[in-house]
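note to self — DONT lose this again. spent like an hour looking for the file last time. sequence + predicted structure for the chain T wanted, 325 res
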Amino acid sequence: MSQTTSVAAPVFDPFGYSIELPLETKVHAHGFLMRVITNSPDVIQTAEETWAGFPLLFTDHSLEFRVVVSNNAQAKRPSNLSSKAQGHLLFTETDEEDFAVGDLNTGFAAFWVSPASARDHEFFRAYHLNNVMYIMLWHAHLTMVHAACVTRNGHGVLLCGPSGAGKSCLAFACALRGWTFVTDDGVSLARRSTDRLVVGTPRGMHFRPTAVEVLPELEGHLVLVQPWKKLSFQPAAANAFPQFRRAVHANIDAVVFLNRDAGGPARLVPMSSEESFSRLDRELPLMQQIEDQRLSLRRLVEARSFELRYSDLFDAVRALEFLAS
C-alpha cells in the first residue's frame, strides 16, 4: 500500500509576522515602564545602557517597543531623521531601511532597522529609541522644557534659555559647588503632578568646545560625540567627577532665565509669571495636547521667576544660592 506524505505549504507572510523576536528587557524609561522586544542583542544592550538604575516613578502609563533588525548586512547606517504625526499616529524615518510607526495613545511602537543602525548604540539611542520615547511621553504625560536643572537643600531650580545661553556650564559650575545635578539641557515636566515635578537625565552632560575656556576643570574629561550632526561633548567616563551628586527628578521652586552678557556683579531680577510663561511657551513644540501642556507650564511658573544677569560663572552660582537657602 502506498503512503502519502504531507508537506506543509509555505506560509504567505508579506508583513513579516513570522520574524521571531526572542529577546526582551524591561526598563524604566524616564520613570515609565518600557518593554523592549527584539531579535537583536544590540537593541537590548542600548536600552539597558540608557535606563539601567532609573527608578519607576509613574505607574499610570507604559510603553512597548518592538524592534525588528533586518539581515541586510550591506545597508549603511543613515544620518538623517524625519518625524511626522497626525492624530494618534507617529511615523519616524531615517531611510528606507530604518523607520518606525507608533500609536501615541497606547504607547506601542514598531521599528524596522538595519544591523548597522542597531550596532551603533549612540545612533540607535538618539535617532530611534529615545526620539520615539520622548514624543510618546510628551503626548501622553510630560511637557518638554528647554532648561537645565539643579537642586540644593531640596530646592529645584530651572536654568532656562536658548541654545548657547550657558545652561550646561552653569549647571556644571553649580555641581562643582555642591549642588545636585539633574540635567543640563532639557527636563520633562509631569503634567499631572501638583508639586512641579520634573524628570531629567543626569548621566550625560554636553558642552560646546569653548566650555573649557570658562571651565578648565573639563580639560581631559571630554570626548566628541555627534549623534545629531552637531558638535557636542560629554564626560569621557561614568566616573568622571565622582564628587558630583546626581538625581533623576526634582520639585521646582524657581525658574531662572540666563543673561550671561549683562556685565557687572551677578544679580537676580524678578520676572512676572506672564513673562516667564511667554518665554517657555515660545519653545514648546506644537503637539496634539498643546493646551494641556500650556496649563502645566502655567502651574510651573507659579514658582518664583527671575532673570539672572551675570558675566562670571561662579559669581552666578553664588547669586543662585539665595534661591536654595
